[in-house]
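Before relying on records like the one below, remember that each one covers exactly one chain. Contacts with other chains, cofactors or solvent are not represented anywhere in the record.
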Amino acid sequence: MNAVMTRAHSELQALVEERALTTGMSVRARGQSLTLGRTETGPDGHAIPDDRVRLTRLGGCTWGLSVKRHTGRWERTPFSGSMPEMHETICTFMQHLVTP
């Protein structure tokens, strides 16, 4: 992970832990994206990651927001902005997706 993504990962993890709605969510980095998810228990009792939303770096300090569809594919939303703005968007418009 490069330095920009390392800083972004740390920033998002701190934002996630600040709000009760997102506390406990994991943040994973891959390429230019950060995925927020929860850990769910599968039918066999093993923990499985349950990805909910993804932030993709669009350039500079701007991030785009995508949501995971029931098909497993990511769908872009019209939301973009700074990391704090995207976290606020997740907590307001996407709260049904991140609620435990």
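The two ends are 28 Å apart (CA to CA).
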